[in-house]
Amino acid sequence: MRDDAHPSDLKGLARDLNAAFPGLSPLERLTTLRETVPGRLVFTTSLGIEDQLITHLIFRNAIKIEVVTLDTGRLFPETYDLWRRTEEQYGKRIHAKYPNGEKLEELIEDQGIDGFYYAKEFRLNCCGVRKIEPLGRALDGASGWVTGLRADQSANRQDMDFAGFDAVRGLVKANPIFDMSRADVAAFCAENAVPVNVLHDRNFLSIGCAPCTRALQPGEPERAGRWWWEDDTKRECGLHVPDATDGTDGARELAR
Ligand code: SF4
Fold first, then answer.
1. Pick the catalytic residue: 70, 237, 239, 254?
2. 116 and 122 in contact (C-beta within 8 Å)?
3. Which of 74, 129, 214 best tests ligand 1's pocket when mutated (most atoms within 8 Å of CB)?
4. Which enzyme type, at the first EC level (predicted)?
């Protein structure tokens, strides 16, 4: 359990950050977050281009925010290659959380190695074991969680805030590049030699697990390549659910 910040304090800090963030640069948001919130801060990266921008800012400026990735075991080879290249470029470790071995064995026994294609329930089970449970361990005891979410990634994200209080996990959730466009992010990464996934050049805009991600067709929205066989509009894996940004609204289900 975290012992250096009470949840009611964190709720107030989240409100302060949300008010302060719009006038600040992404780097200033990260440093302000670090100066404002006591205790462990964790940035979870999927190694997508947005997350690489934040990793660059944290590593280059030695900001005391842990950089953690969830290795589901089903990532693209190109993503593992980027992970290695990033550690080499910055001389820093990206910490990893893995699925619980016994739970993973039970999952595969129950629904098969690629069961997620056959029923949404199976897909959520897989995301639960490979992502949600490890995320819980990554955030255990943390006061704050940093994400690379952007508002214009999907309609579901339009009404999110820069920062809020995640009432379920009891921490501040901060989205420091929430107002950047994809073009802004790409331009920053190009100008600053930030390593990015080579799959982005092959029309993979949002990159997750290999069996659940495909390249976009011309004109498709940014996240259309994720869980494309599910035809509903809310394709969530649960990493960002529920998003209780003001402590009262806990029903927003968002995808990663
Ligand atoms: Fe499993 Fe696909 Fe979810 Fe990855 S994205 S955890 S492979 S269902």
1. 237
2. yes
3. 74
4. oxidoreductase
- Which residues have CB under 8 Å from 230's CB, separation 6+? 120, 123
Q: What is the pTM of this model?
A: 0.90
Q: Using one digit for the tens of pLDDT, what is the confidence trace for 110-123?
A: 999 999 999 999 99
Report the atom number in ligand 1 closest to the C-alpha of 212. Answer: 2
The mean pLDDT value for 166-190 works out to: 96
189 to 52, 57, 177, 197, 199: CA distances (angstroms) = 8, 11, 13, 11, 15
In whole angstroms, give the CA distance from residue 72 to residue 54.
21
57's enclosing H/E stretch is: helix 49-60
189 is catalytic: no
Q: Is 126 annotated as a binding residue?
A: yes
Using an 8 Å Cβ cutoff, are 126 and 107 in contact? yes
| 209 labeled part of a ligand binding site | yes
41 touches 64 (CB < 8 A): yes
Place of tokens 């969680």: 145
The two tokens of residue 220 are 């498709």
For the chain, list the domains and their CATH numbers: 7-103+131-212 (3.40.50.620)
Q: Give the ipTM of the model, two decimals please.
A: 1.00
Name the closest-CA residue to atom 3, ligand 1.
127
- Ligand 1 site, residue 237, Cβ cutoff 6 A: yes
- Per the annotation, does 212 bind a ligand? yes
